Amino acid sequence: MRLELVKRPQRSMLFSMLSPFIAFALTVIAGALMFAFLGVNPATALFTYFISPITEVWQIHELAIKAAPLILIAVGLSVCYRANIWNIGAEGQFVIGAIAGSIIPVLYPEMQGPFVLPMMLLMGMVGGALYAGIPAFLKARFGTNEILTSLMLVYVAQLFLDWMVRGPWRDPKGFNFPQTVQFNSSAVLPEIMPMSGRANWGFLFALIAAVLIWFMMSRMLKGFEVRVLGSSPRAGRFAGFSLNRMVFFAFMVSGALAGLAGISEVSGAIGQLQPSISPGYGFTAIIVAFLGRLNPLGIVAAGLVLGLTYLGGEAAQSVLGISDKVARVFQGMLLFFVLGCDTLIHYRIRLVGLGAPKPQVAAKLEEAR
Amino acid sequence: MDITVNILMTIATAATPLLIAAIGELVVERSGVLNLGVEGMMVMGTIGGFGAAYLTGNPWIGLFAGIALGAIFSLLFAVMTLSLATNQVATGLSLTILGLGLSGMMGTNFVGLPGERLPNLYIPVLTDIPVIGRLLFGQDPIFYMSIVLVIAVAWFLFRTRTGLTLRSIGDSHTSAHALGIQVIRYRYLAVVFGGACAGLAGAHLSLVYTPQWVENMTAGRGWIALALVVFASWRPLRVLAGAYIFGAVWIGQLHAQAFGIPVPSQFLSSLPYLATIVVLVLISRNKRLTMMNTPASLGQPFVPDR
Amino acid sequence: MKKLLIALAATAATLSFAATVQAQEKLKACWVYVGPIGDFGYSYQHDQGRLAVEKQFGDKVETAYLENVAEGPDAERAFERLARQGCKIIFGTSFGFMDAEVKVAAKFPDIKFEHATGYKMGDNLGIYNARFYEGRYVIGQIAAKQSKAGVAGYIVSFPIPEVVMGINAFMLGAQSVNPDFKVKIVWVNSWFDPGKEADAAKALFDQGADIIVQHTDSTAPLQVAQERGLHGFGQASDMITFAPKSQYTAIVDDWGPYYIERIGEVLAGTWKPEDRWEGIKEGAVLMAPYTNLPDDVAAAAKETEAKIAGGWNPFTGPVAKQDGSEWLKDGEVADDKTLLGMNFYVKGVDDKLPQ
User: Fold this and answer.
1) Do A326 and B105 lie within an 8 Å CB cutoff?
2) C24-130 has which fold?
3) Are the C-beta atoms of residues C161 and C339 closer than 8 Å to each other?
4) Is residue A307 part of a domain?
5) Is residue B301 part of a domain?
6) Residue B157 domain-assigned?
7) Is residue A141 part of a domain?
8) Contact across the interface for C74 and A279, Cβ inside 8 Å
9) Is residue C94 within 8 Å of C116, Cβ to Cβ?
10) Is the model's pLDDT at B288 over the cut of 80?
């Protein structure tokens, strides 16, 4: 027996809506089996994983903090991927954005006032965009494969950050530990509702970016250009669009958003530069972009779901003693089910027998009785 | 002279896992599939290799277990991307997350146990020849496998009919399908071959490179293998060259530090990555050559029309 | 019959005892680890300490932990989560958790916090660390006695004071035996990458070192030493099973006694935030059994160990800085503050400290 896909004439609205729920149901079943196998009560485990993180206000704030950079980066990446341009190096653009945005609070801590924060955010965006401009330039000028260059530049950026915080930018009063000075209050991204939790404006930026990019992609000529060049570069050329200019545009938009995520994270959630400022947001955001089907609004949902799995994993670890590894496996399962179920939107699945085995099997079963 | 031989042997050990994983991924990508889950399959190979070797006391069994686990794990990717036509980039990344978690779960009881090392080759007389003896006849078995693999893959892709078919699928799955070629079946085999190679590369880490098992012991080598494939513009012999250049820069920066060259170590550590970019730019300036080698339908899902 | 009665009585006694213990509320003690507990190095040793606590207190204490917690925003959430889940004392085990832990500690004044290797304290936040440099002085002496080449290879992670302090103590120990002793240093920019650590060990051996010292967490360098028939020292755990012929000794982080003591204080209600920096004397730093060594060298090492346990500080003058300028006068002892912020080499270290 094998699977056979039959393309639907057009995407199924029904399954667009249903597929996340089917995926969720499958994850719950598979997860229950796994937890039962590990000797943990499946109901408790699943409750801890999916429900408990969103039952408390402080955790909802934490979810916003965790999801904000994922959404911000993924929204930018969706522009690239729609244009068929493969920026894998958002992690590096995130780091460089954080460094560029920190220039004022680290080197000129005496600068204070309401203009500081907007300047920082702007510089973060510029930093990320310029760093993303390197692979864009190499691709446009020499045809160098952008997957590789953007990925390599991630490592370079991380090592550069490491060198900065251990060397030139090290806090002179920090016992020679690798970190910069704490940002002063006018360089810290404010919290949205300080009374109930520590979620900061970064989450609002993510929502705004998602709406803006959604508007651009679906309502503006530029979005049309992205999609045409992405699906058929030849047709794009006939329409007078330049692929090279698109390479720069897509890279710099996604770089700017990754940079904004970087500086928001540093000035909002951390408050200073450290050797490690991202637990792999730039890479996780790639998954978020595809989970959200490259649609900015879908990405908002996907970012929240993925953020939830991180929080749920921690809750399961600390409450039930389920190891970090199990949480990771569970997260992987969820991703596989979601991706697999999305197939239903474009295709019908048929099970096809090889030869005519079915009647035979049935006959054998009859015999057995 | 001895130090030169030692350094060359060290480079070979560092390059071998990269080379094997990359050559496997090269075949996968030549068939038009982009599997970004190399790191995940490789880490499964580390636990398969170590676990089986430890439980049986025989590192050779470990070697095969590593290959098998990598191959089985890649089947998951194959079912998703080939049978269900999911997005290859996202599926590959998810595969890595799953692999890191699963290997950690499986390996909980193996932490802190010394492993069985796969012994180096020793042929009396031949291995004892000064200088070239050890280089040619005194390496670990997986080193020889890696060289054989490169030659075999190069021969297969460019000298056999099946290889030609595989490449034609990578260039245009629709025309290959129109010619009656079983696109999906070929791709399944390619993906599983890539998984087996990644598994072997992982087994090299836990059986030769550092005979032990710890979580995440691949430490990003799967990503470098992926980069090498593009770096080599999908040519097997260039993968060989690339892996060794990368290994040489990697080992070279450690030696430079031990010599006391006063350059920040972060800069030295980033050299291999910068070198990769520079070489890549130099290669890709010859546009026609790169275009010719790039599998045109790389990363695009294929569903046969009926 | 008599036996049976005794047995019954004993069972009844244990049952009633168990019942009273259950009636008491368990104290919840929690840990946040920066790495996976399966690293067989730093986080592994802290987790061994946690297990020692469970063993010691049995039913009176329950424990929980979060592993693989990234330094940065994830850390603050980890502490907040544990604090809200009823943990009464929380140990943060990595320097990079410092500011996160400070923030959360201020929010939860009734919960006790302890932070390893940091320097910020609070009303409910204590700090703790171990004087690993004491062990490094001991292995410096051993290295200088055992090395034929007079050169050791030293694999290091990141240039933080803790690591620099270790290099300096090692050199002072070595110089006390052989004033011309040399050390070659390689920074691998990682706490944990077995492959890279093995490569670094090979590079150092190839360049003439015959003893390997590491301030990274994996057992790979010792395995390389074993393969080459050379020697080295274990780090964080006793790594003898990985290199039975090559390990001279290891500097073992034994956090168990400290955790047991502090949790005992919480149970007794006597816990206070403290700045605890303990070493060989208190048992926080253990030297693994001396193996593969001539008797006189092992005896001398034990003597040094005893001297340090008696209160002598390896950083006792005269000590000159790398450029030859005086750091400690004859008989002067370095103060803890200088040590904790150390960012210079002592004389004889042939390396430029990454700045």
Assistant:
1) yes
2) Rossmann fold (3.40.50)
3) yes
4) yes
5) no
6) yes
7) yes
8) yes
9) yes
10) no
CA gap B106, A329 in Å, rounded:
11
Q: Establish if B298 belongs to a structural domain.
A: no
DSSP state of A182: P
Closest C-chain CA to A278: C72
What average pLDDT score do residues A252-267 get?
96
Cβ of residue A145 closer than 8 Å to a chain B Cβ: yes
Task: Report the complex ipTM.
Answer: 0.87
Q: Chain C interface, mutation test: which of B4, B5, B118, B257, most C Cβ atoms within 10 Å? A: B257
One digit per residue, the tens of pLDDT, for chain C of length 355 reads 444 444 444 444 444 444 444 445 789 999 999 888 877 888 989 999 999 999 999 899 999 999 989 887 889 999 999 999 899 999 999 888 998 999 999 999 999 999 998 888 999 999 999 999 999 999 999 999 999 999 999 999 888 888 999 999 999 999 999 999 999 999 888 887 889 999 999 999 999 999 999 998 888 999 999 999 999 999 888 999 999 999 999 999 889 999 999 999 999 999 999 999 989 998 889 999 999 999 999 999 999 999 999 999 999 989 999 999 999 999 999 998 888 888 899 998 888 776 6
Strand pairing class (C231-236; C211-215): parallel
Mutation pick from C167, C183, C206 vs chain B, by most beta carbons of B within 10 Å, is C206
For the domain made up of C132-254+284-340, the CATH class stated in words is: alpha beta
Q: Which residues of B touch C193 (CB under 8 A)?
A: 219
Distance from CA of C239 to the nearest CA of B (A): 8
Residue B306 domain-assigned (yes or no): no
Give this prediction's pTM: 0.87
- Parent domain of A78: 41-321
Q: Is A329 on the interface with C (CB under 8 A)?
A: no
**Total number of domains constituting chain B:** 1
CATH number of the domain bearing residue B117: 1.10.3470
Q: Alpha-carbon distance A208 to B204, whole Å?
A: 48
Number of other CB atoms surrounding residue A349 within 10 Å: 13
Is the residue at A17 inside a domain?
no
Q: b/e per residue, A201-230, with b = 16+ CB within 10 A?
A: bbbebbbebbeebbebbeeeeebbbbbbbb
Question: Residues spanned by CATH 3.40.50.2300 within chain C?
Answer: 24-130, 132-254+284-340
**Residues C352, B10: C-beta atoms closer than 8 Å:** no
CA distance A176 to B33: 48
C65 part of contact set with chain A, CB < 8 Å? yes
- The CATH number given to whatever domain includes residue A110 is 1.10.3470
- Please tell me which chains touch B, using 3 or more CB pairs under 8 Å as the contact test: A, C
**Contact of C93 with C116, CB cutoff 8 Å:** yes
Contacts of A283 in chain B (CB under 8 A): 93
Looking at chain A, which subunits does it touch, using at least 3 CB pairs closer than 8 Å as the criterion? B, C
Q: How many CB atoms lie within 10 A of CB C16?
A: 10
Whether residue B290 and residue A323 make contact (CB cut-off 8 A), yes or no, is no
Structure tokens, C103? 């923030």
pLDDT of residue C129: 92
Q: Which domain holds residue B75?
A: 2-293
A114 belongs to a structural domain: yes
Label residue A39 exposed, middle or buried (CB < 10 Å: 0-12, 13-18, 19+).
exposed
User: Taking the CB of residue C11, how many other CB atoms lie within 10 A of it?
Assistant: 10
Q: How far is B178 from chain C (nearest CA, A)?
A: 47
Query: Are B265 and A167 contacting, i.e. CB atoms less than 8 angstroms apart?
Result: no
